[in-house]
Design brief:
This protein is α/β, with parallel strands linked by helices. It contains 25 helices and 21 strands. The structure holds adenosine-5'-diphosphate and magnesium ion.
Length: 689
C-alpha cells in the first residue's frame, strides 16, 4: 500500500460499514492513521492462569476449567448463565446478549479458558461477557503475554477494536506511514516499530513501565508528539509576528492620572508587569503576553494601566471576561476609573436589550467608545470596531483558542493585528505554561497587595450543617459578609439554580435576622447586577450563589465562604472560590462542606486546600491529580491534548523537542509541517487565522 494511511477511511478495514464507522468516529477514529494512534490505555496479562479461588471483584483474570452446567436465567433481563469450575472454586459466566447456537459452546464438561473482569452478580462472583475459548489437552498460553486494552465506546468490543487496530498495523509501511523524525530519534525504534511494540508488546514486556508510558517505545512516540506540538506553537507565533501592530508610547500621562486616583500604591510586582507590557506596546509587532497572578493579586488595575497606553494613542481597547458577573464587575471598576477621566466605558453583553446593544454597537463602530467591556458578545460578527488596538482577555482558560483568535481577528482587518493581553489566575506551572502557551510571553504578578491575611480553611461533614449556619450568623452579626456557594455535579445551570433556590429558602428560615441575596446563572442579567451591587454596597449580609461567582468577584468586606459539596470540585475551582474571601485586612475563613465517606481523591483535595493558600502549589498538585488537559480546561478547547506525551512526566523530553522543532522548521520545513499534520490535524486551522 502506498497511499498514506491518513487518507484511507476506516471503512477500508474488513467488515467496517457505516454503522461501525460511526462508532469509531465517536472515538475520534476516522482514518487508518487514527487507528494506529489509538493507543492502549491498559494491558491485560494473559500469560498466567489463576485459580478460581483467588477471584476477587475488580480483578481481570484468566481461568482454566470446565463447564459445570448452563441455564437460561429469566430475571429482569434474560441471560445465559454458565457455571464454570476448576476444582478450586466456581464462578458464573453471564451473557446478556447471546445467540441461540452459543449455547452449544457450553456443553457440560467442555474445557475452556475464560478471561474477563470479575464482578459481584446475583449468584456471587461473576464475569459478564467473558472472552472464552475451548481447549483440548495442554494448549500453550498465547504468545503475546500482554494484551492491549483500548479506550472504547458502547457497542464495540475490545476484541473487535483490537482486530481493527492490528489490521491497520498490517497495512502500515514506510510509504503509507513515512518516518518523519531524524535518524538519531528513530535509531532504536522507528515510528512503525514503536507502534507495533505499543499495540502488541513482545513477550515479557514490563507492564508497569508500559502503564507509566515510560517504555522506550512510548517515549519515542512522546518525543515525536512533543516535537510536533512545539513546531505548531512556533508556526502560530511566526504567523502572528509577521503582522503589524499599532505602536504606543511608553510614557502615558493618562496612566499617571489613573494612578493618582487609586486609593493604594501598586505593588512592586504590579509595577514590573506593567512596565513589561508597556515595553511590548512600543513595538510594531503584536504583543502576546500572558499575565499570571494568583487570585487577588491585582490584575485588573494592571489591565487598566495597559489600556491607558492604547487609548492615549487613539486606539480602542476591548476587555473580554468569561462570565456576565465578572464582565459586569470589570465594567463597574473601569467605569469608576475612566469615567472621571472623561473616557466613557461601553458595555456589550449577549443578555442586554436590543436598544442598548444597538447603541453600544454604534459607538464601537464610530470609535466614540474607546474602552469596551463585555462577554463573549465582543467577538460576534455584528461587532465592528473602528480601531481595535488592544485586546484584554481575563481568565483566559475559560475561553477556547477559537474565541481568542476570533477577537484578535477583529483587529486584523486593516492588516494590523491588535496587541493581546491575557490574564489568568490559574497559576500554570512553568513546564505546562511553556508548552501550552508556547506562543505567549509570560509575566507573573508574584506578590499580593499588603495587609492580606491568609484564609483559614476547615473541612466539615454535612452532619455539622447546623454549626456552619451558626457560624454564618456570628460572622454576619459583626458586620462582615459571607458567601454560601451551592454546587452540583450535573452540568446543568437549571438544576444548579434550583438547588441554590432551595438552600436560599432554607437559610432564610434559619437566619431570619440576616439580609440574604441569591444569584445563579438563570437570573436575568439586570437582576444579577442589582443583587451583586447591593452585596458590594453591604446591603446584603449573605450571598447564596452557584459557581457563577467563581471568578473575579471582588467584595473585600466578605470574610466567610461556605462551599457545599466541596469534595466534588476540582482544586482549581476551590481555589478560585476561596479567593473571593481574604481580600480585605480581616481574618477570613473558608468552610468546605462534604458528604462522607470521602473518596481518596476527595480526601487528597480537601487536605491540600487546608494545607496551603498558595495558588502555585495548588496548581502543581492539581496537575498531579488530574493531568494537564483538565487543568487548562483544554478538554473543551482542544488546545493541548496529548496522545502519549505527558507534560509533567516528559519534562526532560520537552527541551530536546523544542530544539529539534527549531532545526526541523529551518532545515526541513516540509517534514516539520507533515509532523504537525500527523499529530495535530486541527492545528493548521489556527495558523491560518
Ligand atoms: P485579581 O488579580 O484576582 O483580578 P483584582 O484585580 O480583582 O485581583 O484585585 C483584588 C483587590 O485588590 C481589588 O479590590 C483591588 O482594588 C485591590 N488591589 C489591587 N492592587 C492593589 C494594591 N497594590 N494595593 C492594595 N489593594 C490592591
Ligand atoms: Mg480578576
Amino acid at each position: 500500500m502506498t497511499q498514506q494511511l491518513a487518507h484511507i477511511s476506516v471503512q477500508h478495514l474488513k467488515g467496517v460499514g457505516a454503522a461501525l464507522a460511526d462508532k469509531l468516529a465517536k472515538l475520534g477514529l476516522t482514518n487508518l492513521q487514527d487507528m494506529l494512534f489509538h493507543l492502549p490505555r491498559d494491558y491485560e496479562d494473559r500469560s498466567h492462569i489463576s485459580p478460581i479461588c483467588s477471584a476477587h471483584t475488580g480483578a481481570t483474570l484468566l481461568f482454566e476449567g470446565e463447564v459445570l452446567d448452563m441455564t437460561v436465567a429469566q430475571g429482569k433481563r434474560q441471560s445465559l448463565a454458565v457455571r464454570f469450575g476448576d476444582g478450586t472454586g466456581v464462578i458464573t459466566l453471564r451473557f446478556y446478549h447471546f445467540y441461540p447456537q452459543q449455547k452449544e459452546h457450553f456443553k457440560r464438561g467442555t474445557r475452556m479458558r475464560v478471561f474477563g473482569e470479575i464482578r459481584l452478580g446475583t449468584s456471587g462472583m461473576e464475569i459478564y461477557h467473558p472472552e472464552y475459548k475451548a481447549i483440548k489437552g495442554d494448549e500453550p498460553l498465547p504468545d503475546a503475554n500482554l494484551t492491549a486494552i483500548y479506550p472504547n465506546t458502547e457497542g464495540l468490543t475490545q476484541v473487535r477494536l483490537r482486530q481493527l487496530v492490528n489490521e491497520a498495523l498490517s497495512l502500515a509501511n514506510s510509504q503509507s506511514l513515512p518516518e518523519l523524525m531524524p535518524a538519531y530519534a528513530s535509531s532504536r525504534y522507528s515510528l512503525l516499530q514503536a507502534l507495533h511494540t505499543v499495540h502488541n508488546p513482545p513477550n515479557n514486556s514490563n507492564r508497569e513501565l508500559l502503564l507509566m508510558r515510560a517504555h522506550p517505545a512510548q517515549q519515542r512516540l512522546a518525543f515525536e508528539e512533543l516535537t510536533a506540538h512545539q513546531i505548531s506553537l512556533a508556526q502560530r507565533r511566526q504567523h502572528i509576528q509577521a503582522l503589524q501592530a499599532p505602536v504606543f508610547k511608553v510614557e502615558s500621562p493618562l496612566a499617571q492620572q489613573l494612578l493618582a486616583k487609586l486609593p493604594f500604591a501598586l505593588t512592586n510586582a504590579q509595577r514590573r508587569v506593567w512596565s513589561e507590557i508597556a515595553r511590548d506596546l512600543t513595538h510594531n509587532k503584536p504583543m502576546l503576553r500572558l499575565v499570571q497572578g494568583d487570585v487577588g493579586a491585582g490584575k485588573t488595575v494592571v489591565a487598566a494601566l495597559a489600556a491607558c497606553h492604547a487609548v492615549a494613542a487613539d486606539w480602542q481597547v476591548g476587555l473580554m471576561a468569561p462570565t456576565e458577573i465578572l464582565a459586569e464587575q470589570h465594567f463597574v471598576s473601569f467605569g469608576h476609573w475612566f469615567n472621571d477621566l472623561n473616557l466613557p466605558v461601553a458595555w456589550l453583553s449577549g443578555k442586554q436589550g436590543t436598544k442598548e446593544r444597538t447603541a453600544s454597537l454604534a459607538k464601537i463602530a464610530s470609535g466614540e467608545a474607546k474602552i469596551i467591556v463585555g462577554t463573549h458578545a465582543l467577538f460576534q460578527d455584528s461587532v465592528q470596531f473602528a480601531r481595535l488596538g488592544l485586546v484584554i482577555i481575563d481568565e483566559q482558560h475559560r475561553f477556547g483558542v477559537d474565541q481568542r483568535l476570533a477577537l484578535r481577528q477583529k483587529g486584523e482587518q486593516w492588516g494590523m493585528c491588535p496587541h493581546q493581553l491575557i490574564m489568568t489566575a490559574t497559576p500554570i506551572p512553568r513546564t505546562l505554561a511553556m508548552s501550552a502557551y508556547g506562543d505567549l510571553d509570560t509575566s507573573v504578578i508574584d506578590e499580593l497587595p499588603p495587609n492580606r491575611t491568609p484564609v483559614t480553611t476547615v473541612a466539615l461533614s454535612n452532619a455539622r450543617r447546623a454549626e456552619v449556619i451558626e457560624r454564618v450568623r456570628a460572622n454576619c452579626q459583626t458586620g462582615k459578609q459571607a458567601y454560601w456557594v451551592c454546587t452540583l455535579i450535573e452540568e446543568s445551570e437549571l438544576l444548579e439554580a434550583q438547588a441554590a433556590e432551595a438552600i436560599y429558602e432554607e437559610l432564610q428560615k434559619e437566619l431570619p435576622e440576616l439580609r440574604l441575596g441569591l444569584v445563579h446563572g438563570k437570573l436575568k442579567s439586570n437582576d444579577k447586577q442589582v443583587i451583586m451591587k447591593s452585596f458590594k454596597l453591604g446591603e446584603l449580609d449573605l450571598l447564596v450563589a452557584t459557581t457563577v461567582i467563581e471568578v473575579g468577584v471582588d467584595v473585600p468586606n466578605s470574610s466567610l465562604m461556605i462551599i457545599e459539596n466541596a469534595e466534588r470540585l476540582g482544586l482549581a475551582q476551590l481555589h478560585q472560590l476561596r479567593g473571593r474571601v481574604g481580600r480585605g485586612s480581616t481574618v477570613s475563613y473558608c468552610v468546605l462542606m462534604y458528604q462522607p465517606p470521602l473518596s481518596q481523591m476527595g480526601q487528597e483535595r480537601l487536605a491540600i486546600m487546608r494545607a496551603t493558600t498558595d495558588g502555585f502549589i495548588i496548581a502543581e498538585k492539581d496537575l498531579e491529580i488530574r493531568g494537564p488537559g483538565e487543568v487548562l480546561g483544554t478538554k473543551q478547547t482542544g488546545m493541548v491534548e496529548f496522545k502519549v506525551a505527558d507534560l509533567q512526566r516528559d519534562q526532560q523530553l520537552l527541551k530536546t523537542a523544542h530544539q529539534l522543532a527549531k532545526t526541523l522548521q529551518k532545515e526541513q520545513p516540509q517534514q516539520a509541517h507533515a509532523l504537525v499534520l500527523r499529530w495535530l490535524p486541527n492545528a493548521p486551522k489556527y495558523v491560518a487565522v
